Here is the input.
Amino acid sequence: MKQDSFSDQLAEPEIHRLTRRDFMKGLGAVAVGCSVTLPLLSEVLLADEQQSRVVLIRDADVVGRDGKINAAVVQRMLDQAVTALLENADPVACWKRLVKPDDVVGIKSNEWDRLPTPPEVERALKQRVMDAGVPERNIGIDDRGVLGHPVFRKCTALINVRPMRTHAWSAAGSLIKNYIMFVPQPEDYHDDNCAPLGAIWHLPHVKGKTRLNVLVMLTPLFYGVGPHHFDKTFVWNYNSLLVGTDPVAVDSIGISIFEARRKAYFGEERPLRASAHHITLADKKYHLGTSDLSKIQLIKLGWKEGVLI
Amino acid sequence: MPLVRTFCSRSLNAVGMVLILGSIMIATDNCSKQQAPEQSPRDLVPDESLGWTLQDSTETYDREGIFDYIDGAGEVYRAYGFAGVTVFRYDRVGEGGIIVEIFDMGSPADAYGVFSYSREEETSGIGQAYEFAGSLLHFWKDRFYVCVRAEQPGELAREAVVAIAKSIDGKITAEGGKPALVGMLPQEGLVPHSETYFHTHPVLNNRYFVSTENILNLGAGTNAVLARYSPGRVYLLCIEYKNAQEAEAARQQFVARYIPEARDSGAAQTENGLWVAVVTQRQYLGIVFDAPDYERAVQLADALKGKV
Here is the structure.
């Protein structure tokens, strides 16, 4: 059965009609493209619960010269990120806060063949979910088959993980966009550069289940041309994971890194060609998190060289 | 003879409609320099180039099937008069493959349009303009938008990409002019190759987000161009409607929804400290976004008014 667009159920006239000026008033930095202002980022640990916390962790050794990913380093990075995010030195204790032993956990990955979620990252996540007490039989990892996957069909918790890349239509392959496979007709959510994607997060089989978001920026794609929008020329070893419970905040930091990388690579301001307003709308319309960089607490860990942000 | 795999069974009517629409666009744009003969994509590609040999694995995708090929980015082509794409593969022992995609965009205007959507720079010499970015060379000519891409970067592959592109260019016998609307843009301060030609609201929002609603009444029947001007990052949007009444209706709606404080003046300062100005002239609507001051906003709007 085809599921209706959830946006119809969110018919609140005063917020339905959003313009660029509404974003200006609300400092929706992502949607207004080149006005992303890195200095607004809060880099100081604050006890302000209004802030969304995002952990950016990097390790120079996570990607080898041969392009292979070091699984042990990935596990260490993930542990460091989660412990910083949840302010507890024990990674397993942190994961026990994220998932309970009786949870059924779907790890929503991304299998796009040119830049898939590395299996090393998937395995690191699965390991810690099991360490938290969830039986292996109650853990599923999938992308395009989630609607038919027996674990995802009964899941009580979701872990959202995907590599970040630029995209010709939606501007970015984002965490918000990664849930498009939770609807049977993904093209129903392509309208206006995938603007309605945030509605998917409110569907009954998705809403409120996401416990952690991991934006993989080990080898992100920062620029693309043509229909497939992929070229190894524009992939770089950033060697990073971005981790947070607020997917909009994590995506917004990812976009900021892309803008900085493009400026560094081209030697001039080169904002994303496409507007990433699906991320800002995930904030302003669907209330999934914050795209306001001044309300994001960024914690940077690990390798500093070329951090860009 | 290459085996052709098609994905178009569900949408012959849709394709037919698109081709008709494309023909109408060609006629109304009055921009075709030569009568385009019917050319099959297979007739355009060489059998071999620098050791890369055409494989028997040709695929075609129509408007409905495009998502099977490029997922969500298929919307880019569907926003124009896209009729279909044919995909060819070349292989050479010990080297990565080369992929050729020939998009039939239905009209020269829309072939230029989708090229303008994609390119950030452009050069003359292959097709009517091309860009070689990374491992991808793409160009437009007549109603075709062509991409030639090496799967593995390398000097030899790069030479082969150029050779294949030039071969295809040589076999497309017709040329089509750029849409007339693009030629109406004021030249002073225009950032080279910043123009994007399009028709629909999602493409406008893709290049410059204006509103979640289609407050400018854009659609398949409107022609539009967005361009950037310096100094600063000033944008000029010019839309051609079917008639002056439609242009005026769009102006009134835009003012009411976006700059109600400019109901009388046609210009307003927005929350980012920059200026917006709107003008109409016959069936044309012009909007300046992000001008640094009132004078620049009005000057650019008036310059457009004098050109259309």
